[in-house]
């Protein structure tokens, strides 16, 4: 085990897989010589050369579209898109081809690629640098969507993604890149896709969150613990396909559910999880499910972003609401 | 000092032609096709034409769904594919679902695809033909990525990507062309300029003088070819593929024709197009030109021409019968091949669907 920052854990997973799989290659803007805007791919081009760690033109649809052809040619491309909202120019490729190629070819041509991008806010960035686009991807059949919340999970889930036979949209909370540090196994470490992580066991209230919101949920749980409230915390981590059984277990742990997400509320993953609880576990619920989320407004100027992004106070307030019901 | 604005490329805008030129009368000559090759291309053009003719009838009778017509595009499809090696790949637009026929796929499979049956959705590795691309131009980066991927592995595979004049207005055409140039991917950008994107004429598509001019901006060599001339398309593709295979990077081949038919069924071109113009184009279309050439050279008799046609008709007629005899698709199909493994949610949805059908019958 070694103590690593979240970004360095991702770098380690990429490095190990580039060593292990001669057909793995990275493709993205500024990822080579400069090591990426967040330094996630630092020094990889030095080790593996410019044909395997490729500085691409500024061309999001081109990067993902080229990756489709690379998959057909037997490569395992890993695309880096520079920011969450800069993935929107590539949505046509992701929605119309990447997610459907397996289906369209009756299983003959899979698209084993990983599309990595930083997501979320809290780093005082300009417009279109702080979006949480997970719901768009989760709404698209044929994609696996992952968002880790710890350095160890970042390495383990990314390694699993790099060996998956389905396309994986790998969302990396940029708030965590340098803020989150933790023990990471130095040897091969795989966290299977498709299962939730229990962050903390508890019996009075269940907090369901993912990515950078796990830290917020933990802070809120620590605050209410002072008042004797035992919070169960569930990290969804594979956002699609959802680990429905794992989530329902977490719901049933307390019967009082607060879902915390950065993205806007309407038609979101929080809405999906709330609906799942209502359909499958209504009689285990002891209070209406409450969502704490970003607002149905564009991610704001950073002078007010801390009001938009859920913090421990809003989560504590929601916990009180479900406890009082 | 006044600067000189370059509004067009300096190269000759003349269309490259073989048929009807003095060279053609000397065929067989080494740099185009030999006699048997030329006859084979004609036979393939007939097969494609007959498939198109019959498919239009089947569509009107409700026996197949939407059919994208490529009547008049046969010289482009056949000329390009004949110049490729069997190991080279093609990336079709929605209009080139017939390319697999040239690689040996049955009319049955192609017609089954137009009946919404899974049998028509092919394995790209089996036919070396990428999946059909319904959105416009978004397969251009696929071809570039594939060709580049092959080159990186030391293989000399070439990829040809087919798209229309309208596709050159789409962002992904430009991203793909740019990427292909930067990576020197051995890809042939084959533009079927038939002058129409549904009802939009090419004059409303671009202010560029020629579509081939767009390649210049990317540093990609281009050529304009008479798209009614199968030998010219063949020869341009052969040279382009050789160049790409030798490390020369991408080329752009603009095949100029006129879409004398509708865009697809349903589409009524009388609402936007001059019938006189279309009629003139029909007189100049590719199959007649090749036929006249082969007859003039004594390579094709009436009997031979009739035989090719009847062979093709029989094959397509058998194909539709077989396609219609395929078993009714199982609803389980919906849940297959979405991901490598079915999710629990898919399984429960499928069971629920079955239960409802058992209870209430199929609507």
UniProtKB/TrEMBL annotation, chain A:
<protein>
    <submittedName>
        <fullName>Alpha-ketoacid dehydrogenase subunit beta</fullName>
    </submittedName>
</protein>
<dbReference type="InterPro" id="IPR009014">
    <property type="entry name" value="Transketo_C/PFOR_II"/>
</dbReference>
<dbReference type="InterPro" id="IPR005475">
    <property type="entry name" value="Transketolase-like_Pyr-bd"/>
</dbReference>
<dbReference type="InterPro" id="IPR033248">
    <property type="entry name" value="Transketolase_C"/>
</dbReference>
<dbReference type="Pfam" id="PF02780">
    <property type="entry name" value="Transketolase_C"/>
</dbReference>
<keyword id="KW-0560">Oxidoreductase</keyword>
<keyword id="KW-0786">Thiamine pyrophosphate</keyword>
<feature type="domain" description="Transketolase-like pyrimidine-binding">
    <location>
        <begin position="4"/>
        <end position="179"/>
    </location>
</feature>
<dbReference type="InterPro" id="IPR029061">
    <property type="entry name" value="THDP-binding"/>
</dbReference>
<dbReference type="Pfam" id="PF02779">
    <property type="entry name" value="Transket_pyr"/>
</dbReference>
Automatic annotation (TrEMBL), chain B:
<dbReference type="GO" id="GO:0003863">
    <property type="term" value="F:branched-chain 2-oxo acid dehydrogenase activity"/>
</dbReference>
<protein>
    <recommendedName>
        <fullName>2-oxoisovalerate dehydrogenase subunit alpha</fullName>
        <ecNumber>1.2.4.4</ecNumber>
    </recommendedName>
</protein>
<dbReference type="GO" id="GO:0009083">
    <property type="term" value="P:branched-chain amino acid catabolic process"/>
</dbReference>
<keyword id="KW-0560">Oxidoreductase</keyword>
<dbReference type="InterPro" id="IPR050771">
    <property type="entry name" value="Alpha-ketoacid_DH_E1_comp"/>
</dbReference>
<dbReference type="InterPro" id="IPR029061">
    <property type="entry name" value="THDP-binding"/>
</dbReference>
<comment type="similarity">
    <text>Belongs to the BCKDHA family.</text>
</comment>
<keyword id="KW-0786">Thiamine pyrophosphate</keyword>
<dbReference type="Pfam" id="PF00676">
    <property type="entry name" value="E1_dh"/>
</dbReference>
<dbReference type="InterPro" id="IPR001017">
    <property type="entry name" value="DH_E1"/>
</dbReference>
<comment type="function">
    <text>The branched-chain alpha-keto dehydrogenase complex catalyzes the overall conversion of alpha-keto acids to acyl-CoA and CO(2). It contains multiple copies of three enzymatic components: branched-chain alpha-keto acid decarboxylase (E1), lipoamide acyltransferase (E2) and lipoamide dehydrogenase (E3).</text>
</comment>
<keyword id="KW-0670">Pyruvate</keyword>
<feature type="domain" description="Dehydrogenase E1 component">
    <location>
        <begin position="42"/>
        <end position="331"/>
    </location>
</feature>
């Amino acid at each position: 085990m070694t103590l690593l920052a979240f970004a360095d854990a991702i770098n380690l997973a990429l490095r190990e897989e580039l060593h292990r799989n001669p057909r793995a290659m990275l493709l993205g803007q500024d990822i080579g010589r400069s090591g990426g805007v967040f330094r996630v791919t630092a020094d990889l081009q030095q080790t593996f050369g410019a044909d395997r760690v490729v500085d691409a033109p500024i061309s999001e649809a081109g990067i993902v579209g080229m990756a489709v052809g690379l998959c057909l040619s037997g490569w395992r491309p890993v695309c880096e898109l520079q920011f969450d909202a800069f993935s929107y120019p590539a949505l046509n490729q992701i929605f119309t081809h990447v997610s459907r190629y397996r289906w369209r070819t009756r299983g003959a041509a899979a698209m084993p690629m990983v599309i990595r991008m930083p997501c979320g806010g809290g780093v005082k960035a300009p417009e279109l640098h702080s979006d949480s686009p997970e719901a768009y991807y989760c709404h698209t059949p044929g994609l696996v969507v992952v968002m880790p919340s710890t350095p160890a999970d970042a390495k383990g889930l990314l390694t699993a993604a790099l060996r998956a036979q389905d396309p994986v949209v790998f969302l990396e909370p940029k708030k965590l890149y340098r803020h989150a540090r933790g023990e990471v196994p130095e040897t091969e470490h795989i966290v299977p896709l498709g299962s939730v992580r229990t962050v903390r066991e508890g019996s009075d209230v269940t907090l369901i969150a993912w990515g950078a919101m796990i830290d917020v949920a933990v802070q809120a749980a620590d605050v209410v613990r002072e008042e004797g409230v035992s919070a169960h915390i569930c990290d969804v981590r594979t956002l699609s396909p959802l680990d429905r059984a794992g989530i329902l277990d977490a719901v049933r742990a307390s019967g009082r559910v607060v879902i915390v997400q950065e993205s806007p509320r309407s038609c979101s993953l929080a809405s999906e999880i709330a609906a799942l609880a209502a359909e499958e576990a209504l009689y285990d619920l002891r209070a209406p499910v409450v969502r704490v989320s970003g607002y149905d407004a564009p991610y704001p100027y950073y002078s007010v972003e801390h009001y938009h992004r859920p913090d421990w106070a809003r989560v504590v307030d929601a916990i009180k609401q479900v406890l009082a019901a | 000092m006044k600067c000189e604005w370059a509004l067009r490329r300096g190269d000759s805008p003349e269309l490259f032609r073989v048929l009807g030129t003095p060279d053609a009368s000397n065929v067989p000559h080494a740099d185009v096709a030999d006699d048997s090759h030329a006859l084979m291309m004609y036979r393939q053009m007939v097969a494609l034409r007959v498939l198109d003719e019959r498919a239009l009838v089947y569509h009107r009778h409700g026996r197949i769904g939407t059919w994208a017509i490529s009547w008049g595009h046969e010289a482009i499809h056949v000329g390009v594919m004949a110049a490729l090696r069997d190991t080279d790949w093609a990336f079709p637009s929605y209009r080139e679902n017939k390319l697999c026929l040239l690689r040996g796929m049955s009319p049955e499979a192609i017609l089954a695809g137009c009946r919404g049956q899974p049998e028509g959705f092919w394995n790209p590795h089996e036919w070396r033909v990428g999946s059909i691309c319904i959105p416009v131009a978004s397969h251009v980066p696929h071809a570039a990525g594939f060709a580049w991927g092959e080159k990186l592995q030391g293989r000399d595979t070439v990829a040809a990507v087919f798209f229309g004049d309208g596709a050159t207005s789409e962002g992904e055409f430009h991203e793909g062309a740019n990427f292909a140039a930067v990576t020197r991917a051995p890809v042939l950008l084959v533009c079927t300029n038939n002058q129409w994107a549904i009802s939009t004429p090419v004059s409303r598509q671009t202010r560029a003088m020629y579509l081939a001019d767009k390649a210049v901006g990317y540093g990609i060599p281009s050529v304009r070819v008479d798209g009614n001339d199968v030998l010219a398309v063949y020869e341009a593709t052969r040279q382009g593929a050789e160049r790409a295979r030798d490390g020369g990077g991408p080329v752009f081949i603009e095949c100029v024709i006129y879409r004398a038919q509708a865009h697809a069924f349903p589409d009524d071109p009388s609402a936007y197009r001059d019938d006189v113009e279309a009629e003139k184009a029909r007189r100049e279309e590719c199959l007649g030109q090749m036929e006249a050439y082969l007859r003039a050279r004594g390579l094709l008799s009436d009997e031979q021409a009739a035989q090719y046609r009847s062979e093709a008709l029989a094959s397509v007629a058998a194909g539709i019968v077989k396609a219609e005899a395929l078993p009714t698709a199982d609803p389980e199909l919906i849940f297959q091949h979405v991901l490598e493994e079915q999710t629990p949610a898919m399984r429960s949805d499928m069971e629920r669907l079955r239960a409802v059908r058992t209870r209430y019958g199929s609507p």
